[in-house]
Recover the amino acids of this structure.
């Protein structure tokens, strides 16, 4: 899993090097990603100050960024 300057969180096949899918993106640059210990979720952070939690199942975004009024 990677993220970068465009803020997109991407999952890759390590054998083929091909992108499997893009999970979504942060409003700013992506600054970090990590798998959960059980491998079913991904956490990502962005320069926009958000933390997002993604599931590898059908409903991908579990924890969306807060609305501006919540900040």
């Amino acid at each position: 899993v990677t993220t970068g300057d465009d803020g997109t969180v991407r999952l890759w096949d390590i054998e083929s090097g091909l992108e499997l899918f893009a999970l979504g993106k942060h409003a700013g640059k992506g600054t970090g990603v990590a798998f959960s210990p059980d491998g079913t979720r991904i956490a990502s952070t962005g320069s926009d100050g958000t933390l997002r939690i993604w599931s590898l199942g059908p409903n991908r975004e579990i924890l969306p960024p807060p609305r501006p009024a919540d900040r």
The chain has a mean pLDDT of 85. The beta strands are 8-12, 19-25, 30-35, 41-46, 51-55, 61-63.
